[in-house]
Structure formats: C-alpha cells, structure tokens
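REQUEST ID: PR-0412
SUBMITTED BY: lab tech R.K.
PRIORITY: routine
TASK: structure prediction, single protein chain
INPUT:
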Amino acid sequence: MNDDDLARRALLAARALHWRRTRRLTAALLLLWLATTFGTVFFARALSGWSLFGWPLSFYLAAQGAALVYLAILLVYALAMNRIDRRFARQLAEQA
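STATUS: complete
OUTPUT:
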C-alpha cells in the first residue's frame, strides 16, 4: 500500500465516524421530539386535572412546554453538530 491508499482509507474512516455520530445525534433528538409530541397528546386527559398559573397542565405543555422542548432540541442539534464538524475538520487537518 502506498501513501495515497493510506490517506484515502483514513479519510473514509473519518468520514464514516462523522456520519455515524451525526446519525446517532439525529436519531436521539428525533426520539425526544416524538416523545414530547406523543406525550403531550397521550397524557392530556391525565394532566388536565392539574393546573399551572390557572391553566390546565395539558394545555400549558401542549402550547408552551412542547415548543420550548423543540427549541431546546434545535439548540442542542446546532451545538452538537458544530462540535462534531470541528472534530471532523481537525481529523482532516491532521491527515493533510
């Protein structure tokens, strides 16, 4: 094997690791999104007996809480992807 083959294999390994981390992060955040969406609807009747600031808790979670969770998911995704991309770029720079 020559140096080009080794460099190509290292690049492919780094790229595969990058996409594996990206898919894992995306899957985890999609599961959180699904749990938030499903949970507010599925448990709405059970939560309607409790109130928060005069509103039923189910209304608060559906109207405000779920939206805040969605924003948190976006923030976590952006920060984590920046970190994953920087790590990938660092690996590419080390190989060059």
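NOTES: The radius of gyration is 21 Å.
REVIEWED BY: pending
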